[in-house]
Design goal:
By secondary structure, the chain is an alpha+beta fold. The chain has four helices and 15 strands. A hairpin with a 6-residue loop joins β14 (238-241) and β15. The chain is globular, with a radius of gyration of 17 Å.
Length: 257
C-alpha cells in the first residue's frame, strides 16, 4: 500500500534528509586515495548518531538473509550497490558509491552519491556524470498526474542513448515511515504506464547504471551486487516528495565529487 504523507510528515522526513546532507558534506574530504572504507563507515555512524539519528542500514534485514553489518553501503567500481565496507582502502582511479540511510524520530531519508577517487579515466567520469543526469531526469518526471513508468522511461532512455546498461533487478522505492515502502520504482519502463503519482508520495529515486551490460549478480556475502561483466557501475539517489508542482528534493547534490 502506498502511504501518502501530510505536510507535517514530509517536514519530518526532511529533517532526516537534512542529517543526510550534513553527513555527506562531512564525509566528502575522506573520499580520497588511501582512506580505509571502515574509517568512512565509522565516521558516518558517529556523524548520524551525534545528530540524534540512527544509521538505518546497520542491522537491516529483508527477512531472508544476514543483517547488514555496517552503517553505510560502500560499493567500489564493479560493485553496483550494497557493498560492505570491509578491510579495503580507496585507490586512485576508483569510483565509490556511498549509500546512506537515516532514521530520525521515526522517519527515514535515503540517498547515494558516487565519488571519484583521485584522477579517473574519462569514460568512468562520464559514466558518473550521465548517471547523475539520469537521476535528474527521473526526478523531473516525478510529478503529480504522471505515472511511475514516466520516471523509469526518462532514466532508461537517457542511459541507453549513451550506450549504458540499466540495472533491472534493483529499483527505487517509497520511503518515509519505513526505509522501504511501496511503490517500487524501476529505472526502466514505458511512459504513461504504471501507478499514477500523487501529491504526498515520498520516493527514493536511484538509478544504477553500468558501463557495460545491465546484467548483475549477488556475491556470496549475501549483500553485494556486482556487474556480471566486471565493468564499473555508478549510483545516485535522492529522496523526494511529490507536490502540486515541481518535485521537492529533500536531499540534494549536483556535484560529481
Amino acid at each position: 500500500m502506498i502511504i501518502l504523507k501530510s505536510p507535517a510528515e514530509i517536514n519530518r522526513i526532511a529533517k532526516a534528509c537534512e542529517v543526510l546532507q550534513e553527513v555527506f558534506e562531512g564525509v566528502s574530504p575522506l573520499m580520497q586515495p588511501g582512506t580505509p572504507a571502515r574509517e568512512v563507515d565509522q565516521f558516518i555512524e558517529d556523524a548520524i548518531r551525534s545528530r540524534g539519528g540512527r544509521p538505518a542500514f546497520k542491522g537491516y534485514s529483508a527477512g531472508d538473509g544476514k543483517p547488514f553489518p555496517a552503517s553505510s553501503c560502500i560499493s567500489i567500481d564493479s560493485e553496483v550497490v550494497h557493498g560492505i565496507p570491509g578491510n579495503r582502502t580507496f585507490k586512485v582511479g576508483q569510483i565509490v558509491g556511498l549509500d546512506i540511510g537515516v532514521e530520525l524520530n521515526g522517519y527515514f531519508g535515503d540517498a547515494a552519491r558516487t565519488f571519484l577517487i583521485g584522477d579517473v579515466k574519462p569514460r568512468i567520469k562520464k559514466l558518473v556524470e550521465i548517471t547523475l543526469e539520469c537521476l535528474n531526469r527521473g526526478i523531473e518526471a516525478a510529478r503529480a498526474g504522471n505515472r511511475l513508468g514516466d520516471i523509469g522511461c526518462a532514466i532508461q532512455s537517457y542511459a541507453e542513448k549513451h550506450g549504458y546498461g540499466v540495472v533491472r533487478e534493483l529499483s527505487g522505492h517509497g520511503v518515509g515511515k519505513k526505509l522501504h515502502e511501496e511503490p517500487q520504482i524501476p529505472n526502466y519502463g514505458f511512459s504513461g504506464r504504471g501507478t499514477v503519482l500523487q501529491k504526498g508520495m515520498t520516493l527514493a529515486i536511484e538509478p544504477m547504471i553500468n558501463l557495460g551490460s545491465h546484467e548483475v549478480y549477488s556475491a556470496d556475502d549475501g549483500w553485494t551486487v556486482l556487474t556480471r561483466d566486471g565493468k564499473p557501475s555508478a549510483h545516485w539517489e535522492e529522496t523526494i516528495a511529490i507536490t502540486d508542482g515541481e518535485p521537492l528534493i529533500l536531499t540534494r547534490s549536483n556535484k560529481v565529487s
